[in-house]
Amino acid sequence: MNFQPISSGHAVTDRLSSRDSLGYQIRVGTNQKLVIRMDGPEEADFDLYVKHGEDVSRWNYDFKRITQHADEELTIGPTQEGNYFILVHAHRGGGDFSLSADILYEEVVLLPGQQVAGEIEAGKEARYFRISIDQGQRLILDLNGPLEADFDLYLRYGQRPTNVQYDQRSYSGGSKEKITVEATQGGDYYVMVYSYRGKGRFTLWVGSGRKPSLLIITSKDNLENKYGSAVFLRIEEDIKAYAQSVGTMGQEALTVYVDEAGSLLPYDLDPVDPQDASAIKDLLDQLDRKLHSDHFLIVGGHEIIPFHVIPNPCGDDGDTVVYSDNPYASRDLDLLIPERALTRLPDDAATDGVFFVALLEQVARRAQGQSTQTFGLSAKVWEGASNRVYRELGSSGAVRLSPPVTNSEIRRDWIDNKEYYYFNLHGSEETKNWYGQEGSRYPVSFCPDNLDNVSVENAVVCCEACYGANIVDKRADGALALTFLEKKAACFVGSTKIAYGPSEPPCTDADLIVIKFFNRVIEGLSFGEAFLRAKEDFARESIRMKGYLDKTDEKTLLEFVIFADPSARMEASS
Amino acid sequence: MTLTIDQLKQIAKEYIRKDSPDLAAEEPTHQEEERVVDPAAQAKLGLAKPKKIPAKVNVFTFKKTVTAEDGAKIPIVTRITVDADGNVIKATGN
């Protein structure tokens, strides 16, 4: 007999002829309560037989429910882990019937502002939560589950939801789901996290009240001290204009100065020392618990909101520390795997504010570019690995190689008005240039002058060069990352320190994280979300390949940063 | 088969001679690396408990500084990861 899998809370409808039987099975965890209900034809007599762990028959069962009717109910508990096999037998008469099996859990009570972690151990299983909330509140549920699985979110007022009975549901085909109730009824809401496919851990966050889509954080003291009052006011106006432009796109942006009491008063939080990265991370954690934004943006470079300075996992490669935004992007003390879609718009070392103001104004009025072309440039020694990365952009061509190409030979038409730029070159902590390699020759391959009279507006730039995103104490013309932003690129992804990669595929380290980022941007995610998912994808694939994250994997996760508006995205190429 | 550190180093050096001859003259540093996944990272990724893998590997780091054509100093680093049986399981560099 075939035993059809069924899921908790989901009723199946079938038909039986007299003396015939049908089989079902449901997976259950330990110490739960399984309630099986059958609703059959009025004149018929249907019976239920159940067995744990193996096929059930009328002669081999653990539980049975036999009356002279076709409506039966059987409660089993506490359950053993595994499959329960169910037999429905038409003892007398035939006709349509429905069968449902509910796995009852102790409900977890959630409060607004709270995040819980849970686990679903198999497909078709569910976990339940209850939220008590006042009338007229905004209720936000945010589910993050495993990438490989498909978890769905169901909400129902007053009663537990099922797959068919719910007020709202979110079922994207992945495991990142969100439900928003703009004005709640007063009382209890019930939530079901349901695995349509796959298993794994998930987090569920419950928010209420005002929820910004974008949280902007910066330091008033550091901006004022660096730029003076007049330029600071201009910067403040630009940040407001940017927040408003985000608002016109249907999102809500909120700016918080980490060191200004008035800015933090609505959240009942105290200002922190803007030089103290750990204190800023703690404040960001508290803000996140209260606001739970979709995106987070740090406005300013290392002098305004400092990078975290982390001991280099690869302790013997010459870098003593790694500059990283990962701790800001993480909701806990783990530094490697970010959980927030967080980016940074850096300023440069100059104190006139010209670069920074232009960057903020450009971000505020950004409209996505129209070109669909790409440009790639690689050190010749890494030709194989670079072409593997470049292929992800859908380009029919190959990366240009250095040597033979050097900076003086780069033609304007190669790099003008492209959508994606990819660089796999050497970098130096001392200079603003990037370098090729063939044998022991290291020519200058790309320098800020190459961007003179070239449009890179709205482009995505990914660079694997060592120190490619090192902006600490750099002026806009002293670091290519800042030059690209000055020239209005939409996004720059690169490494603050020595970055690694293989010379040939399979791709690891910098190659792999750039591939994952390109994939996620092309998929249509915002830059902040794409960078977050790219790091998760990178970690999962690295673990799949070797069984663990090695020290260069860890360093890659820490040192790759993104400079962009977190809520912006590339429009689909026409 | 378990090889000595010196034997493993020779395997790494041989690999470097073929793959990155510019570093062949360099003497590598050696680190033992635990093959573990941080439990917090594992939980965040929603991964099942990893299957058992040999506990440790040996990482040999070859490093030098070169001078680019504009005079800039560029660090050149390659890390070769070798398991206890002498298999090169990863080679990565900058």
Q: What would you note in describing this structure?
A:
The complex is a heterodimer of chains A (574) and B (94). By secondary structure, chain A is of the alpha/beta class. Chain A folds into 4 domains: 3-104, Jelly Rolls, CATH 2.60.120.380; 108-208, Jelly Rolls (Sandwich), CATH 2.60.120; 214-342, Rossmann fold (3-Layer(aba) Sandwich); 369-564, Rossmann fold, CATH 3.40.50. Chain A has 11 helices and 33 strands. Chain A has a 6-stranded mixed β-sheet, with helices on both faces. Chain A has a 5-stranded mixed β-sheet with strand order 1-3-8-5-6, with no helix packed on it. In chain A, strands 10-12-17-14-15 form a 5-stranded mixed β-sheet, with no helix packed on it. In chain A, helix 6 (383-391) links the parallel strand 25 (374-379) and strand 26. The longest helix of chain A has 29 residues, at 220-248. Chain B is of the alpha+beta class. Chain B has one domain (5-93). Chain B has 2 helices and 4 strands; from the N terminus they run H-E-H-E-E-E. Chain B has a 4-stranded antiparallel β-sheet with strand order 1-2-3-4, with helices on one face. Classes of the chains: A alpha/beta (574), B alpha+beta (94). The interface between A and B is large, with 52 and 44 residues.
Task: Outline the secondary-structure elements.
The complex is a heterodimer of chains A (574) and B (94).
Chain A: E1 3-5, E2 12-16, E3 21-28, E4 33-39, E5 45-52, E6 63-65, E7 72-76, E8 82-92, E9 95-104, E10 108-110, E11 115-120, E12 126-133, E13 139-144, E14 150-157, E15 168-170, E16 176-181, E17 187-197, E18 200-208, E19 214-218, H1 220-248, E20 253-257, H2 261-264, H3 277-291, E21 295-299, E22 308-311, E23 321-324, H4 326-329, E24 341-345, H5 354-364, E25 374-379, H6 383-391, E26 400-402, H7 412-415, E27 420-424, E28 426-427, E29 434-435, E30 444-446, E31 460-463, H8 480-486, E32 491-495, H9 509-523, H10 527-546, H11 551-559, E33 560-564
Parallel strand pairs in A: 1-3, 10-12, 19-20, 19-21, 21-24, 25-26, 25-27, 27-31, 31-32
Antiparallel strand pairs in A: 2-9, 3-8, 4-7, 4-9, 5-6, 5-8, 11-18, 12-17, 13-16, 13-18, 14-15, 14-17, 22-23, 28-29, 29-30, 32-33
Helix pairs in contact in A: 1-5, 6-9, 9-10
Chain B: H1 5-19, E1 29-34, H2 39-45, E2 56-67, E3 73-82, E4 88-93
Antiparallel strand pairs in B: 1-2, 2-3, 3-4
